[in-house]
Specification:
Elements lengths: L6 E5 L4 H12 L3 E6 L7 H9 L4 E5 L5 H15 L4 E4 L14 H29 L2 E6 L3 H4 L5 H21 L4 E6 L4 E2 L10 H9 L7 E2 H12 L10 E2 L9
Parallel strand pairs: 1-2, 1-4, 2-3, 4-5, 5-6, 6-9, 7-8
Helix pairs in contact: 1-8, 3-4, 4-6
């Protein structure tokens, strides 16, 4: 899976699954542009680590739900790196709340962060991909898009929306040389789930929900993204791959 000299944007790429994806893409030869949250600090250690691997890397602060900020960041990435070849829409949040107690603000924040961000990033990347007649988009969904989850109606809905979005966009742009695919991981040991790890019942329930009987790691999932970004996946269009330990079997 050779991605030498490709340029990849990874939203939410400074930590968790996003960082593992950025790292694996860099190992395959990609130059990396990380987009990190306005609430975060510049991930200098991560940028330096990527540069030490021999490639070019930079990080950009942006609110992925803000169209003006996304447009500006993509312009900056294109100017700095000279092109863009790969977009990984990984940014997202997960907060557990019963629908009966969920506020409209909680619903809107989840949908905007997880789903609207995919719309904005894809819409803004397409002009670059159209002009070069090539590009690969990988959207990060979840196995909960298929099975749902208690206290996660907003999260599950946003992730299901990503899968439908992926299929639809793939049909629009495949003949322009642009491949759009997705991944739907199962429960992982990552920054997103860290607040729940002290809850023994939560952890046990997650383990029992997958055939492997354990949580996955971000390092186990990231190579699937590298595959989808590479020419080895040239026939994969509008597909969702499920690195989930057997939590959902299709």
């Amino acid at each position: 899976m050779d991605l030498k000299n490709e340029v990849a944007i990874v939203t939410g790429g400074s930590k968790g699954l996003g960082w593992s994806i950025a790292y694996e893409l860099a190992k395959a030869g990609s130059n990396i542009a990380i987009i990190y949250s306005p609430n975060g600090n510049y991930p200098e250690d991560k940028v330096l680590k990527l540069r030490d691997m021999g490639g070019t890397a930079e990080a950009y602060k942006a609110n992925v739900t803000n169209p003006v900020e996304i447009q500006k960041v993509f312009e900056n990435v294109s100017e700095y790196f000279g092109k863009i070849d790969i977009l990984v829409n990984n940014a997202g949040i997960m907060r557990e709340t019963l629908l009966s107690k969920m506020t409209e603000e909680e619903w809107d924040l989840t949908i905007e962060t997880n789903l609207k961000s995919v719309f904005l990033c894809c819409k803004n990347i397409l002009p670059y991909f159209f002009s070069q007649k090539k590009g690969s988009i990988i959207n990060v969904s979840s196995q909960l898009a298929y099975k749902g989850g208690k206290e996660l109606t907003h999260y599950s809905a946003s992730k299901a929306g990503i899968i439908a979005f992926t299929k639809s966009l793939a049909q629009e742009v495949a003949q322009e040389g642009i491949r759009v695919n997705a991944i739907a991981p199962g429960p992982l040991q990552t920054d997103m789930t860290k607040p729940f790890m002290d809850n023994t019942n939560w952890v046990q329930n997650k383990k029992e929900s997958v055939a492997l009987g354990r949580l996955g790691t971000t390092d186990e999932v990231a190579p699937t993204v590298v595959f989808l970004a590479s020419s080895d996946a040239s026939i994969y269009v509008g597909q969702t791959l499920l690195p989930n330990g057997g939590g959902v079997m299709l």
